[in-house]
Design brief:
Length: about 500
């Protein structure tokens, strides 16, 4: 993705309307939809701006709501901080919710970032056809906008179930507060947008690195179909991606993920969020949000490799659970690539050794400033999607072919699953370890209807043995931990105050 992203004021443009009345005078020195969207370069800049919210989303919030809100990761409680914070509430399945809304800040920010993408893509899609420029470029820009809008609504519908469906720019307070669309209505819009994107976008070989491709759109659409249990439709799309879109597994699992300045958008990458180390403002800092704490400079230096290593003292988030660690089979190469260990001399725990997410701990130059991209869709997941789609159509032997490609790369023997039920469980378990820490686990639990079964048992283990889950001696989860086992989050309370429809 190019780094000349449009500034934050693009959202204001996206929310500003204009009328066709020739008596309306448009100030030529002020930015508006009438003065900005007039040439190809404007739309290129606007599409760049539509990607921008993804950077904050995946750096700060998606992993809280979609990974730590599962049995894959937990938080390391620092009792010196006192009150439980909103992130801990998510990890504890104790998000305070009443009348379908919640004040949790993680929910609010993720919701708003998705609607920033929607607002920006709506403005693009409602104005681009009125401007004359090369069809190939126009189609590619439209395809990216459709993909990003589909992506945002897919995230929203999986998180909340029902949200307002905005498809045109908001021009005033009257059309800002729309009724909640149903889950089926939102699914239908995601399908429509992703389908259109798959037709308009370039494939990976021709597309500029970092931008959405036709393969990414087809993978998103297949993900939707799998969520809806439309197995045959998913199979057809995935076969197209596997056969025609030029992706392949990286031979080494470690190289499936970006380094801070290299290996980005590699052969396995279907879509990833772009970051750039440095002072331009495009950097991330995920590993610093995930690293166990309090950690000294000497303890963090081998993990980050920076020249100015600094200690951190904070609540520790996204710590791999003992449950996930135990899920790796003996000899699985992915385990040591994905999970490392660090001993914290200042920890209040008796066992001062913690696991951490090693796959995102890439050497970089400066403290708290990283540049590795975040993987959203990888070819390994395409293969696992295909295995699932085939198995659910009773094509279990065919499903094994795709599952075993992933297992072989991990250094494991072929699956022994030989029935549909056994294969279903094998694929479910394989997704857990292959895609660990990539924000997949929560959605896997919800779409398979296993939240209460799996999280109920996980919560019982945490409460029975809190020291195994990174609590200092004597500290325990709050009384309301693991009491909110709903498939969807409540809608943001702040937003509910602005609409009568929540």
């Amino acid at each position: 993705m190019k780094t000349n992203h449009i500034a934050a004021w693009l959202l204001a443009i996206a929310l500003a309307g204009c009328k066709g009345d020739f008596l309306s005078v448009v100030p030529e020195t002020a930015l508006s939809s009438a003065t900005f969207f007039i040439k190809e370069a404007d739309f290129q800049q606007a599409v760049n701006g539509a990607y921008v919210p993804l950077r904050q989303m995946f750096n700060e919030r998606a992993w809280v709501l979609e990974e730590m809100h599962s049995d894959n990761t937990y938080y390391g409680r620092n009792t010196l901080y006192g009150a439980v914070d909103p992130t801990e509430n998510v990890a504890d399945f104790a998000v305070p919710t009443a009348n379908g809304v919640t004040a949790n800040d993680n929910v609010l920010v993720q919701y708003r970032l998705n609607y920033q993408i929607i607002a920006r893509t709506n403005q693009i899609l409602t104005t681009i056809d009125a401007v004359n420029f090369a069809a190939e470029s126009k189609n590619n820009l439209k395809g990216q906008a459709y993909f990003l809008r589909a992506f945002a609504y897919f995230d929203l519908v999986r998180l909340f179930g029902k949200v307002p469906l905005h498809l045109t720019p908001v021009t005033g307070r009257e059309d800002a507060a729309l009724p909640l669309a149903t889950t089926d209505q939102l699914y239908a819009q995601v399908e429509k947008d992703a389908t259109e994107a798959s037709k308009l976008l370039l494939n990976k070989a021709k597309q500029e690195a970092g931008r959405a491709t036709s393969g990414a759109a087809k993978t998103l659409l297949a993900n939707l179909y799998i969520t809806q249990k439309k197995w045959a439709q998913a199979e057809a799309l995935l076969k197209d991606v596997i056969t025609n879109d030029g992706y392949s597994l990286m031979p080494d699992y470690n190289n499936a993920f970006a380094f801070t300045a290299t290996n980005k958008n590699n052969a396995e990458s279907v879509f990833e969020v772009q970051y750039m180390e440095g002072s331009a403002g495009y950097n991330g800092n995920q590993i610093y949000r995930f690293i166990p704490s309090p950690i000294t400079a000497d303890e963090i230096r081998p993990i980050t490799g920076t020249s100015n290593a600094q200690p951190t003292s904070q609540e520790s988030n996204n710590i791999p659970t003992p449950d996930l660690i135990a899920a790796y089979e003996v000899g699985d190469k992915r385990k040591d690539i994905s999970i490392g260990y660090v001993t914290l001399s200042q920890s209040l725990r008796e066992n001062k050794t913690y696991p951490y997410i090693k796959k995102y701990a890439r050497t970089h130059s400066l403290h708290n400033n990283t540049g590795q991209n975040w993987p959203v869709y990888r070819y390994a997941e395409v293969l696992l999607f295909m295995a699932e789609a085939l198995n659910e159509q009773a094509k279990t032997a065919d499903a094994a072919v795709y599952l075993n490609q992933v297992r072989t790369r991990a250094g494991l023997a072929a699956t022994t699953a030989n029935s549909q039920t056994a294969m279903r469980e094998a694929i479910f378990k394989e997704r857990r370890v292959e895609l660990a820490f990539e924000n997949k686990r929560w959605f896997d639990l919800t779409r398979t209807g296993r939240v209460k079964e799996i999280i109920g048992a996980y919560g019982a283990r945490v409460k029975a043995n809190p020291q195994d889950y990174y609590f200092p001696k004597g500290a325990v989860p709050p009384p309301n931990a693991f009491t909110v086992l709903d498939d969807y989050y409540g809608l943001p309370a702040v937003e509910s105050a602005l609409t009568p429809n929540f």
